[in-house]
Amino acid sequence: MSFMTRSWRAVAISATVAGAMLAGTASVALAADYSLNINTALTTQDPLYKGLEAFKADVEKQTKGRMVVRLFPGSQLGKDEDVIEQARYGAGVAVVVDGGRLANYVKEFGVLSGPYLASGYDGVRKVVTSPMFEDWVKKLHDTAGLQVLSFNWWQGERHLLTNKPITKPADLSGVRMRTPGAPVWMETIRAMGATPAPMGWAEVYPALQQGVIDAVEAQHPASYNSRLYEVTKYVTKTGHFNLITGIVGSAKWFDGLPAEFKPILRNAALAAGDIASRGTEASLAQIEKDMAAKGVTITEVDTKPFRDATAGVYAKLGYTELKAQIDGMMAK
């Protein structure tokens, strides 16, 4: 795609989004000097969304109303990749996004989406609040025009949702499984034995319903709130991905803010990420009970065969040294 094509595409996307932003919010916008519009694929019922509401309230309070934060659940502003492009052009937009997608700009971020990287929220939080991670943040800002506000938005461990029992990687042979399109996700699902089928989250339910795909891998809150229990029969708790995400927006927009607003945004994002992540932790047991009540069979399996099958993904994608550094961090 040529630069001119990309430019016109970004302009077209920005125009579409601008219309959505203006609808019903004009009076609020006029009262504020700055605005930030945050896009997420998740629903308002997701624990992570509660964290976004806390972020909005905190920022608006600390800036005394000079900044308004608007939340757009259900990918109302478009696909993550399109919102990221708007941000790179300087729009006041941000997206809740995983490291796999950011690896297209700064490779190091991709390791965050690697298989069995860390255990639970506390483990992965060590990585995304480390000096090493801040080096990646600066590199993303300087080379890709993107600004991380915080990256401690834990959505839970991801498991397999299928229509047949799965106990070992060999059971996934021939299974077409939806996963995000980033290389680290694709290679992991392939290593586990399935055929990766990248598509947007909004397409998953109808794709399962129509047999376009056979399975999906996802975290409990997203699975339940998207009613995937209606189109799948089994959840196999592989915990292969520890899904950590962040709020990422425009470096140009961020740099143009008053100096006192910048730490407000980053500190508020970190605090709200903790609220969202602890809320996710607290929700998991009840979600499993609710899914079981809907007729889904939830199975604990020995994850060692899956760990062994995916161990080579880091080397294949050039993350061997970085993975070793993170392992050392986890051991402290």
From TrEMBL:
Q: Which UniProt keywords apply?
A: Signal
| This protein's record includes keyword Signal | yes
Its domain of life?
Bacteria
In terms of Pfam families, this protein maps to: DctP
**Record's signal peptide:** 1-31
Among PANTHER family, the record links this protein to:
C4-DICARBOXYLATE-BINDING PROTEIN, PTHR33376
Full protein name: TRAP transporter substrate-binding protein DctP
The protein's organism comes out as Azospirillum oleiclasticum
- Lineage, highest ranks first: Bacteria, Pseudomonadati, Pseudomonadota, Alphaproteobacteria, Rhodospirillales
